[in-house]
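Lab notebook, bench 4. The sequencing result for the construct came back, and we need a structural model before the next group meeting so we can plan mutations. Quick request posted to the team channel:

Model the 3D structure of this chain.
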Amino acid sequence: MQLIMKKTYLFLIFFTILNSIYCQDDILIGVVKDKKTKEIIPYVNIVYLEKNYGTTSDIKGEFKFPKLKEYSIIKISALGYKDSLINIEQLSNLVIFLEPEPFQLSEVTILAKRNTKSKLKFTGPFYNKHNSIWKRSIGSQIAILIQDESKIGSYIEKIKYQIKKDLDYNCHAYHRIRILSNSNLNIPQKDIIDENIIINPLKFQSTVEVNISKYNLELPKEGIWICIEWIENPNCIDLHINNNNYVSPYLLGNIKLKKSLVYQNYRDRKWYKFGGMPNKEGYYINPNVGIVVREFKTN
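Done. Here's the predicted structure in token form:
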């Protein structure tokens, strides 16, 4: 009897090890590094080219990425690096190198000095009263166009938006804040700031304020896009395996007669215009996002 139990126990151990090895074959575990310096690259978007399914590398540049039998090409993108398309079946190792891309600031002026006596002004589709919720999953990106309403020009001081926390969640997503240039067709373009701005929304109550005054950015006449991206929380990444689930915190919105220009994306795949239609009363749902600017002092 003891011999039978011992054999059964050994069989279970063998089966568990075999199953673990099999599961590892279905998951890519790797790290992303700079091709020239060999330094790690954090917060890299990794996504299937044909499907809204992906992940983000952590602060150490490491990632876990499930293999899907019907898809093989993945897109890898990171701030300050050239996008890369890779066939996961042809990966010889799980160290992925990205080539640095020269960063250009041709569409936005960075000013070294400012007049601190000039007045602050708020602009953008932000209202203290909110009556709608934007729910998104990990990897989702929402970009809102904010144009210059000043006739004398202004600096960008802060980004401001409102959130709603879901207390039923044991874990919440982080936000990556990105500032994108605008095109003649009013479509989001390239990142203006070559730096990851990562926000833990739990540090705020309902209104998130991100101070970007250190960058000394001038708000261009053609406007800029403020992008909010839902990324994995490094403290509870396992909760975000299913990329289709909505995650807290949600982005609050408002309902107004004027429609804001909003685009959506998933892990840098492709921007799509949000085709929000007015309700029966003719009102539109807009994300509660805006910026605080400091107008130029002319005298």
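Residues 120-295 form one domain.
Will bring this to the meeting.
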